[in-house]
Amino acid sequence: MQKGLNQFVERSALSACRVIVLMALSTSMRAATTVLPSRIVDENAPASIGIEQKQPGSTIVRVRLLNASREPLRIYEDFLPWRKRYSIAVFAVPTQSGARFLQAVYPVDDFGSGKITLAPGREYTGEIDLAERFPDLKRVLSTDDVFAFWTYELKTVDRKSLGRQFGGLLLRRK
Question: Domain limits of the chain?
Answer without folding.
Answer: 2-171
